[in-house]
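Researcher: Structure prediction, please.
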Amino acid sequence: MPLSPQFTDVGGDGLVAARHLWHYGYQPTIFYPKQSKNDLYQRLATQLKNLDVPFTEDFNESLKDTDHVVDAIFGFSFSGDVRDPFKDPVIAMETTKVPVLSVDAPSSWSIEDGPPASGPGAKFHPATLISLTAPKPLVKHFTGTHFIGGRFIPQSIAQKYDLDIPEYHGVDQIAEVSGTGTDAKKKEVVGLAERQG
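Model: Predicted structure follows.
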């Protein structure tokens, strides 16, 4: 399962996901070509190495032997064009039949406008999106299965920022908001993103 750790100001979501997946019995492989000098990311990478989680420099080769991809290359602060060493992995995710789950924003997508008009990522539509904390405006361009993760927002913060928090069931840490893909549900989620954007 290639994971592409995100290393923007959002955090090491891909590294954290890999650690959790390993503890749940999965066998992740990490694609992390530009390792951060940030102490937190270095410690997360060390934890993964201590767990014997493999790191790869060849995303395309790892993609041949996986059944899922967790896309956490870029976070919601991404802007501009996709550059090396991430261009080839984005193109590979665009064309693969392997299900891709994107964290917070599909890599290459504008947080406001969705996929780029041309170039790497223009045809990238992951099967699943997990929005962290709240959906971003790009969800109006997303057609797959959509979850919100982040059962940690205090009511005072939700009220202060006018956040609509989904209903979480039992001990779930995520809530599916894609429903059955109906137009009414889609409008509800897009409206939620617009109010928070």
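Model: The beta strands are 2-4, 29-31, 55-56, 69-71, 100-103, 128-132, 145-149, 174-176.
Researcher: Thanks, that helps.
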